[in-house]
UniProtKB/TrEMBL annotation:
This is Spore coat polysaccharide biosynthesis predicted glycosyltransferase SpsG/L-amino acid N-acyltransferase YncA. The keyword Zinc does not apply. Coiled coil: none annotated. It comes from the Bacteria. GO terms for molecular function: acyltransferase activity, transferring groups other than amino-acyl groups. The lineage of its organism: Bacteria, Bacillati, Actinomycetota, Actinomycetes, Micrococcales. It comes from Brachybacterium aquaticum. Pfam families: Acetyltransf_3. Residues 343-493 form the N-acetyltransferase domain.
Amino acid sequence: MTHVVLRCDATLAGGIGHLVRAVSVADAAREAGHTVSVAGEIESPLAVQLLADAGLEVVDAPEDLEILAAEQGASVVHVDDYTIGTDARDRVRASGALLSSMEDGTFGRRPADVVVDSTIRAEKLGRPDDGSGTVLLGISYAPMRAQVRAAREERAANHEVGSEARVLIVMGGTDATGAAGTVAALCAAAEGIGKVTVISPEQNWDAVRAEAGDGIELLAPSPAFLDLACRADLVISAAGTTAWELACIGVPNLLVAVVENQRAGYEAALAEGISRGLGTLEEVRADPRAATETVAKAVADLRQGRTSVTVGQEKVDGHGADRIVAAWSEALSRRIGEDSAPVTARPATAEDSSLLLRWRNDPQTREVSRSTERVSWDSHTGWYRRVLEDPRRELYVVERDGTPVGTVRFDALEDTEWEVSITLAPESRGHGLSRPVLAAGEAAFDQRHPGALVVASVLPGNVPSQRLFARAGYVLDPEREDGDFDVLVRTQPR
């Protein structure tokens, strides 16, 4: 398959909601066979732990997304960051990669090859036509981690409401607004609650106790949140990513719109019957008595079995990330064109630099290369300029119906002997293009160097390449050695 880089941050000020969504997408991408890395500023301790638990590599995030795609060998750049500009698609496309972009209404909106707005009711509100490709709208595209889906199964099988309500409060991984203390104070004053557990960073605990008293349980943010939510009778949450996780699991919940970009999702969740609400954080703080009564009413209804759990689980089924990844595959396949389209080679130009670096840095390509390390942008640009100027090197980009699908390079070893190497675009794998790409490159080369002897150096364990060159008329020369590589000689020069 291909490599995907997820561009998002998880800072102390910005929280970890974007990262949680990105990890969910990573789960689905790897399940589909892709490799994945994360590029961004990761400050939150919980974010660091989530990435470590998921086994995701964190890489540098250059400002230019063209460089990011090329250095990481990514066929897909998935952006979940409001601060990335509207030129993102142009920069990613310069490397030949596909831009996938998460947005929340107008927040983070930009043209992309695949657009995802997983806010509830997004499909009803629509989206202005800005030339984007595939547009996925609505809560059915909300990414859910594998752990969330597992918690959904556990909750359905094991949960029973106790005689006293167990309430869990979570206002985001960083709780930058101090909302946890405000909400904990409401629960301490509300009737019918047996135990209150608050998830908040340790540096906020004194402030939480100052508002709510000492009769609450305080826990630091951790991936164990899902286990706690699964056992809780009621969860009071910020109206961000966690809200949709709770709906998927099937936990009765009350939402608070802690920041402005949560307001639209908050209002839609209430309108669709997925959740109940306490209001915005400002409203809660302005009228704590009314908010306390709302909490008590939710607990009383819980005892009567009146919840919105069924509606939430129907709308958030846990497979949103799978649908996003499937949209990538469809978009990449459309780029390759029809099987009957002509395959032709042309000389590489300076404009192909980032495209060829991206193909070279693809993880699967590096595994069978002489050097398995990633090549940096700076080192590549100098090398590439010299290659284009070197008369003893021939470099071709092969296209199908105008779309680059591979490259073939010939390096002069002696006056009449050249070594051929081929790189297939990662997104072109599985389309039967290896042989046509090699043939197109050979045809272009042979027009300039008729009768030249051509050899290929291939690792013995690289079965696809061994098979490709054998079918193209190359035969192993047992008398020649090239380190760990077999040397195959073309038997019928054209």
